[in-house]
Amino acid sequence: MKHGEMGQALLICGDSKSRRLAVETLESEGYGTVECRSVDEAGSMISTLVPAVILVDADTGEREPLELCESIRRLPACDYIPLILISDTDSRQSNRRAYDAGITAVFAKPLDTRALRKHIRSLGDTGRTLSGVRALRTPQSEVFRTIPDAFFIVGDDGLLRQFLGGGNKDPVLCPEEIEGQMITDVWPAETSKLVLRSIRRCLRTRDGHTFEVVLAKGQNSSSYEIRMLVQGRDRVLMIIRNITNSTRRSTGGRDRDSSDTLTGLTDRDAFMSKFESLIADARLRERGIATFCIDIDRFTRINETVGRAVGDAVLQVTAKRIQRCLRSSDQLAGIKDEGSSGLTRISGDEFVLVVADIESREDVSTVASRLQDAFEEPVSYEGHKLKISPSIGISMFPLDGDNATDLLKNARVALDEAKIFGVKGREFFSSTMKYRSLKRLDVKNELRWAIEKQQLELRYLPRIDLASGNVAGLEALLRWMHPLRGSVPLSEVIPLAEATGLIFPIGEWVLKTACSQTQAWRQIERDVPPVSINLSQQEFSRSDLVELVRKALEDSGLPADQLELELTESMLLRNRQAAAVLQDLNGIGVGLVLDDFGQGHSSLAHLIKLPIKAIKIDRAFIEGVREPGEKQSICSAMIAMSRELGLSVIAEGVESELQLEFLRDKGCDAVQGFLYSEPLPADEVPTFLNACREVVAETAIIDLDTVRKKIASKKAS
């Protein structure tokens, strides 16, 4: 699509990352983009710019986001232009307030470009059409009366609340006559049912929707295209276009070519139609069908790190490789139809493939293996070589569904399982998956509320210096205290959070909270040790990680040397930019600790080149040092080599005096584990630190029983 073909998009954006992602998305969908910094500036620009869509970032620093958007809505000719808000929050309550303020759609940070692109596409040419007639909306305007499209504001109850203009000469529609009436009173039952269902779908999904109907009045009848665009929490803008004499009727009512412009694959509508035909044929012949839902792992990261052009190339190569790897004898959806490949890109980097005439599960596994083998070679594009891998979810007809919608839905459930738990990167659908999927959905929805409802909290595990006996550090550990389920295992939460993107807001909360609480302790307790935070793979891959850390330190007032970040070996090996990111973090002044050392495949010689201050020996090795053997030898070697290279050594999971004595004898610097303390609530940390300091002053070593007695006596007094 040509740049600017869909009209101009006005951006009021303060956050550089959100601005960049929004610009890339809008321009990829054919919009020209113009940026401004304030509503006042926007007001003067809109009169000449004629925007087809307006995008506002909550982080403008100007005023409260909803107030800002309401002021935009009050600007001349902006009452119905699509208005998108990029919000800092994603709560149901804040979204309802946004829709009441007339905002078309809300997207939470970090910005999901796939969802934004889907919404932008759903607008079609609505924004451009509105922009073209915005100055002609007065009833007296003769020019406006000649516009064929009729514009209505319609409530979720089906009330045609307001006729804005257009379509005045249409003898069948008669738009002025039906204003203020219920849809069910002016149109046939089946048509009314379709329109009402579409209105509610729009309000539920916050995306636009287009469909066709035939209306009649007396002896006359006409075909109409109805396009809907959300205009608030309970209303839509409905644009009705008479297409009786339009050439678009010859293409089955579609307003675009039946192929995906980027990959050349069959579009979704044509594909789903063919899919249903294959199912009908398979039902008659009692044959099987396999549905493959294919997703490129970490595709968003490709777009963010090397650019959208490379991402588009990856999608094009993906489509070609999937087609090429299949045998010519495979009966695919639409493969024998001219101009159709039998494969569709259903959204973003998600592809769907249907294979008919399946005889066994082994046949399906063979096809899945060929699909995965097709990606062994890296994708090369303008100097970039990218190793990409697909995850695959598979559903079977008739076992997993008897229609295209159910089969596709269940293949997506299996895809989620493959991305979160799959060992081989592919999974067949099973009924238990649906239960787990619903459970994950419940957890996901509840997790979105956890921060706002203050269900998340941090506990702090002390680290004891073996030379001085002092508390040398505090590791921040996340806990989710669910009001009904109690403490939810993080082994259940973290994989889901990473798969859904919720790991980002949760990680930001952990970082800000740990910094703020540590600084608060510093106000009431001397000699507070550094606090350490564990980073996930996705968090470490964030392009704005360094800025997030710097901002958390600035906002809290915590000195940089009071913060440590813990990373694993696998994270460093997977990220090509790891060395540069570590250098930037080290430049801020934060400490870097290598966690779970011994579980990866990196060498100390490699690690010494990185600005790491300490390594933590994985608890799996510490558990085995109670008795002489291989684990003792490995721990001894790791401690000796690390000390030679100038790295501090921390042992985690210490639970017995035997472990402690062995580690002390071998020269380990510090230990942490339940031998000394369980993770402490934030309000108990200052008391624990004070008691430990007093005990060390008296005995030169921390004795846990003595520490507990000190704490108990302080509480009693």
Helix and strand composition category: alpha/beta
Q: Tell me the number of structural domains.
A: 4
Radius of gyration: 30 Å
Number of helices: 28
The CATH superfamily of the largest domain is known as EAL domain
Do you know the CATH architecture of the largest domain? Alpha-Beta Barrel
Would you give an account of this structure?
- With 717 residues, this protein is α/β, with parallel strands linked by helices.
- The protein folds into 4 domains: 118 residues, Rossmann fold (3-Layer(aba) Sandwich); 115 residues, PAS domain (Beta-Lactamase); 162 residues, Alpha-Beta Plaits (2-Layer Sandwich), CATH 3.30.70; 275 residues, TIM Barrel.
- Strand 6 and strand 7 form a beta hairpin.
- It is 43% helix and 23% strand.
- The radius of gyration is 30 Å and the shape is globular.
Topology, pairings included?
Elements: E1 8-12, H1 16-28, E2 32-36, H2 39-49, E3 51-57, H3 65-73, E4 83-87, H4 92-100, E5 105-108, H5 113-123, H6 126-133, H7 142-145, E6 150-155, E7 160-165, H8 175-178, H9 183-186, H10 189-205, E8 209-217, E9 220-230, E10 235-242, H11 268-285, E11 288-296, H12 299-306, H13 308-325, E12 331-332, E13 343-347, E14 350-358, H14 361-373, E15 379-381, E16 384-386, E17 390-397, H15 404-420, E18 426-428, H16 431-450, E19 456-465, E20 471-482, E21 486-488, H17 490-500, H18 503-524, E22 531-534, H19 537-540, H20 545-556, E23 563-568, H21 569-574, H22 578-588, E24 591-597, H23 604-607, E25 614-617, H24 619-622, H25 630-644, E26 648-652, H26 657-666, E27 670-672, E28 680-681, H27 685-699, H28 704-716
Parallel strand pairs: 1-2, 1-3, 3-4, 4-5, 17-18, 20-22, 22-23, 23-24, 24-25, 25-26, 26-27
Antiparallel strand pairs: 6-7, 6-10, 8-9, 9-10, 11-14, 11-17, 12-14, 13-14, 15-16, 19-20, 19-27, 19-28, 20-21
Helix pairs in contact: 1-5, 12-13, 16-17, 18-20, 20-22, 27-28
